[in-house]
Each structure stands twice: as C-alpha cells, then as structure tokens.
Amino acid sequence: MSSPLLQAGPVERTHLPDVFDPRIHAAGPPHDAFRELRDRAPVARQEERAVLGWPAGPGFWAVTRHADVVRVLKDPGTYSSWLGATQIRDPDPADLPFIRRMMLNQDPPEHGRLRRLASRAFTPGRIARFEATARARARRLLAAARQTGGEVDLVRTVTDDYALLNLTDLLGVPAGDRGLLHAWTERVIAYQDPDEPAVLGAGGRPVDPRSPAMLAEMFAYAQELAAHKRRHPADDLMTALATTELADAELEMFFFLLTVAGNDTVRSAAPGGVLALGEDPGEQGRFWRGEAGTDTAVEELLRVHPPVLSFRRTAARDAELAGTRISEGDKVVVFHVSANHDERVFADPHRLDLDRRPNPHVSFGDGPHVCLGAHFARLQLRVFYEELRESCAGVELAGAPRRLVSNFINGIKSLPVRLREP
Ligand code: HEM
After folding, report:
1. May I ask the CATH class of domain 4-419?
2. Pairing of strands 57-63, 416-419
3. Confidence grade of residue 214 (pLDDT, cut at 50, 70, 90)
4. In the chain, where are the structural domains located?
5. Ligand 1 mean position to 372 CA, how many Å?
6. Which residue has the higher pLDDT, 340 or 14?
7. Which residue stretches, if any, does this entry annotate as coiled coil (predicted)?
C-alpha cells in the first residue's frame, strides 16, 4: 500500500511541523503540531538540527497516532531498543556496548532475563507496604507548604522531595546520600536544559551524560551500597537486587536505570497533574467533593500530562508503518504525548475527564518494556492527590509553570500555586 505521503514532494515534507527541537517543548507539548502530524503525516520525517551545543543527527521518523505507537512498542523484532538504544540522539558508537547493558536498551529474549530478575524485586507486597510511608511524607510536605500562608512553588516545596525521597526509601538509600541521587538524575535528564550546564569534553562539545566517564561515580556508589546491603539486608530494592544472580556490571546499570526512571517521571507527573487540575476548576471541584474516582483520576492526569514525551527505537529491517516505508537502520521515535491525545481513540482528547473509562493511555509505554515501576508510580500519585485534597480546599494556579527544555521528559521546574484554606 502506498500512502499519499510516499508520493509527496520534498517541499510538502519540509512544511511538516518540527517536534524535535527541545526548546519547543518548554512552552508545553506542541499539541497543534502533533495534531497536524497525526492527520497529515502520522509517520513523519523529522530533521535533527544542531541545537544547544549538540551536533546535528541523521533525522528520524516521528510516530504520532496511538495505534502506530502501540504497534511499534509491541514489535521489538522490527523496532529494536538494542540497535541504537532508546534516546533520540545517537549515542557515541564507542559507548553503545556499555549502554546496552541496561535492560531498557535490550530486546527479547535477552531483555527477558533481566526483566524477570527485576520483577521479583518489585513485588506488589513491597510496594503496598510503602503506602503509609508515602502518605506520611505527603502530609508532612504539604503541611509545611501550607505554613507559608500564600503562594508556594509546589515543585520546590513538595513534589521534588516527595518523588526523590520515596524512591530512595524504596531503593534503600541512606538519608544522608539522597542529595547525590538528585544531582545524578538532574545531570542525565536535564542535559538539554540551559539551566543545567553541560559538561564539556574535547573540542568544547558536551559530553553525553550516559557515557561511562560521567557515570563512574554513581556506579562506584551502587557497588558500595550493594555490599552494605549484603551485610545488612533490609526490606528494600537494593537488598533484593544485590542478592540475586545479577552480575556487578548489571547491578550498577540497574541502579542507574531505577534512579533515573523512578525519579524524574514521578517528579513530572505530580506537578503535571496539579497543573491540569488547576486549569480545570470544574473537574477539580468534582475531585475535591469525591465525585470523581481517585483511580480513574490518576490515569486521566497521567494521560493529559505524560511524564515521558517520547522513546526511540531503531528499525531492525525494512518495514511499513501507516503507509510509510521505513528502512533498516532508521530511527523511529514514538510520541506518547501525541498518542494520548489521538482523537481516533480518545473522545474530546483535550478535555480533562477524571472519570474517563476506558483510558488506554500509553504513558507507561507498552510491549515488553512497559514500565516496571507503574504500580509504584500509581501508588505515589494516588496518595499524593488524596493528601492534597485533605490538606486544602483547592488549588489555584498563581503563575505560569516553568518547564524543562527537553524532548524526552515533560518536566515542570516550578509551579506557583495557592493552597486554599480548608
Ligand atoms: C509516572 C511515572 C512513570 C512513568 C510515566 C514511566 C514511564 C515509563 C515508560 C514509558 C517506560 C518504557 C520505556 C520504553 O518503552 O523503552 C518505562 C520503563 C521503565 N520504568 Fe517507568 N515510568 C514511571 C515511573 C517509574 C518508577 C517509579 C520506576 C521505578 C522505581 C520505573 C522504572 C522503570 C523501569 C525499570 C523501566 C524499564 C523497563 C524495561 O526496560 O523492561 N518507572 N517507564
């Protein structure tokens, strides 16, 4: 089957909107551009221009419709996480073998071994035992925020600490070391953001934050922590991982993956959800009065504000997707944020409907790599929204959010709000 796009001339193609430039996303997800791509070119060629000191790349296919995003994520035989790893930017070829030690960057069947070992550590019981701790933490942070009386930055006063401290507890990182984790994740996730100064290497080029050189400190720490847990086992993830058959190198990578995947995602989701509630006082009111289900609200807030904007795959063979020919070796990038707003699947996709059901959003991905921490993330978010509702009579936005400059994480750096007196 040949689509009109295959026949489209180069001029028409160059007029497709750009969704690559990380600076575009700092103004909020470019929903109009995504809609145009979904309608006109659901698998659209994107240029990868040099930006923010990073060199130009070969370009990629942007996949924007829900059905195609799911198709790509469920077909690792065609769309590989291993060939070029999972970030839009190509890694330095010398770093690729190293990056592939992480299960995120593997394909079945190899991926299955690490995934099974990790799943055993993420038992539902361990996550459920965590609820009381998360609740007490949310309550304490929100009470402190309310003490300020007027306007507060919800990110700085509540949600950043909430996400980080929950994760460090689950991992079993001692309280004194939590700041280290924060600094390491910032470096990896915020590397496109001008607020996070890039580390420059030879020739003044930024050093890839996922390279072995940048991660040495974190890996040494992971080994130390694992050795400590073997001597002093506790009910935490690092104890569970350190006592499995994971090789040392795999354990280090796991620690890195969990630190990054588990922190910035929840750190984005919590203020993102509050922003959506603040923008829709009607739905917020229904939630406060208990008229909307908490579980469906958590899902809907994740749909409208997906913490992960995109993930990359590489074509392992020639393929066709939505009528577009993809060649072996091409980069294929799925945009979760666009899939979640696809009008082919979600009625009135820009309306916040806290009772939306079904809600097949792809914020946690799909296929073999579907988020391993989804259960833990949902618990944290549910507890956070419940405690927010308990702590105040409602949330008013007191200014515009400041967003992360990134085409990967839908980050919110600050969110000024007023918490109304109960
Ligand atoms: C709202 C919060 C979260 C969101 C939106 C999210 C999203 C995602 C997505 C989209 C993927 C798929 C990656 C791919 O397709 O290549 C993923 C994978 C993963 N996530 Fe999450 N995540 C969240 C929270 C967490 C938490 C709290 C943890 C751990 C503590 C975690 C651990 C992981 C791991 C280990 C993987 C890799 C799974 C694999 O490769 O098999 N995530 N996440």
Report:
1. mainly alpha
2. unpaired
3. low
4. 4-419
5. 6
6. 340
7. none
